[in-house]
Amino acid sequence: MGILLFLIIILAVIVFAGILNEKIFKLQSDIALILITVILAMILLIVRAVIPDGTATAFIDGLGSFGFEEYLMDGVLCFMLFAGAGKVNMGKFRQNLRPICLLALLATMLSSFIYGGLFYLVAGIFAIPMDIWTCILLGCVVSPTDPIAATGILNKIGLSKSVCSVIENESLFNDGTGVTLFIFVRSIVMSSGKSNFFVLMGREVLGAAAVALGVSFLLFRLMRLTRDPVRYILISLLDVSLVYVICEHLGFSGVIASVVCGMYFSYSMDKMARQVMVVDPRDYYRDFWEILESILNAILFVMIGLLVLNAELSRYVAILIPASIIVLIISRSAGVFISTVMTGKHIPGNYNLTEFVTLMTWAALKGGLSLALAVGTKEYLPHDIYVVFINVTYISIFFTVLVQGLTVGKVYVRLERKKLARQKRRNL
Q1: Residue 80: pLDDT above 60?
Q2: What pLDDT is stored for residue 332 in this prediction?
Q3: 302: number of CA atoms within 13 Å, CB side?
Q4: Is 80 exceeded by the pLDDT of residue 146?
């Protein structure tokens, strides 16, 4: 299938799903998009089964086999991360730096290993042929929260700025931890693990930060030499794409580098706010990145839904559905709990420990990055185990986006009421 035809189909789904949601369902737009796309994929699967036409089958298979991993990891991921990081509130980021770092680093690591350990128990009970390191690798796939899902959905449900800052920034940075841990564990699974994780993590993070800051500093100097707002946009596009390619080539984290670029440009744009107001009074720069993020977000959610067309069900699927959801919630809760205990008494949002763990667990949405990592395991895992990875990843994405994403607003409201009631009792 040609790229232009595929793009036409994607845009048609986005437009018609958006109108359908606006007039009938009235759900949060990103959640509605993935839900409607999955329903459409199910209809196409029925059509493929009922109508054994070679052309129709080839067309439907082509929709589900478009290069998702290449599109995300080698294409648009850096731009989506840059756009998300560009909206970071630097004041709130500095205020919550300790919990953000602990959640992004420690909670992700703990959740991955706890998930692996629990899933290994499930595998042993139900005779799923997975060793402990393969189970931990699966934990590395599904444990990182997705910054694209977080910024695309959580911003629109009314969370406080302080809480939103912690969730968004953790999501932006923990992908670097997740990808690095994934690479490390993958090398063990493939019997080539020689690197120390902390050395690997340090190299990826520090190398990414150094490249991002160095290139961004040089290219941002060009901002001061031009009075064309379109050139502002072009320089930012050049910056994040160049940094991402350099880091991926050198073995650093392109994910972390893209986030650093976005935060650097956001901070530097704020410092030269007067010049920006004169050169770009209509705010083309910020509007461009907001629109681009919305478009790429929508395309990503549609592609996730369409991948269902070629998804193979594991013979263990009846066990995987409840097990993966339960293990995901327990491992995330445990990772957040331990990390929050280490933050000390100053828990963001003035929550108590239980309230904060509940919110951070339920707001941990999964998305495209997890699916891209899972798809990438096809090269070295046995086929039946690869199918388990895909099934578990899809279950995790659908549960967190459709169930948690639709209810996290209500959970937040209840926790706010509990917090206010507790504060009133304390003041009596």
Answers
A1: yes
A2: 96
A3: 22
A4: no
Determine the Cα–Cα distance for residues 191 and 143; give it in Å rounded to an integer. 23
pTM above 0.85, yes or no: yes
Are 328 and 396 in contact by the 8 Å Cβ rule? The answer is: yes
Under DSSP, is residue 261 helix (H, G, I), strand (E, B) or coil?
A: helix
pLDDT tens per residue across span 161-204:
777 788 888 888 888 888 889 988 998 888 765 567 778 778 88
Q: Other CB atoms closer than 10 Å to residue 425's CB: what's the count? A: 8
State the burial class of residue 294 (Cβ atoms within 10 Å of its Cβ: 0-12, 13-18, 19+).
middle
Q: Which residues contact 182 (CB under 8 A, 6 or more apart)?
A: 137, 140, 141, 373
Rounded to whole angstroms, the Cα distance separating 311 from 378 reads: 13
Alpha helices (H) along 103-253: 108-125, 132-142, 147-153, 161-189, 197-223, 229-250
Which residues are CB-neighbours of 377 under 8 A, at least 6 positions away? Answer: 137, 141, 186, 386, 389
